[in-house]
């Protein structure tokens, strides 16, 4: 499952219109959780800051595999779900 965000959108300085918190776990919430752990809002901000067109994902699940933090250290993630139910409500979902 690939992201809907095109490379063009990632180059522009896009700001979210609104924000809400996740209510239940989904693939999208899992990836947002991973971006937010690494210090980014979401894939859009990651691509803007790191100037990359693609994010490395697990082919089996589509979850983010590896992210580079702002201090250039890397976060590596498992193929399986990492965002536990008790963490889901902390995940911020940005609406553009």
From TrEMBL:
Domain of life per record: Eukaryota
Record-level GO cellular component terms: nucleus
UniProt cross-references to Pfam families, sorted A to Z: Meiosis_expr
InterPro entries: Meiosis-expressed_gene_1
Family affiliation: Belongs to the MEIG1 family.
Function: Essential for spermiogenesis.
Name of the protein in its database record: MEIG1 protein
């Amino acid at each position: 499952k690939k992201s809907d965000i095109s490379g063009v959108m990632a180059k522009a300085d896009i700001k979210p219109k609104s924000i809400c918190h996740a209510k239940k776990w989904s693939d999208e919430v899992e990836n947002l959780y991973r971006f937010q752990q690494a210090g980014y809002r979401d894939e859009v901000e990651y691509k803007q800051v790191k100037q990359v067109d693609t994010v490395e994902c697990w082919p089996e699940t589509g979850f983010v595999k590896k992210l580079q933090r702002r201090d250039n250290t890397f976060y590596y993630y498992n193929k399986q779900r990492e965002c536990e139910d008790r963490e889901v409500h902390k995940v911020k979902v940005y609406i553009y």
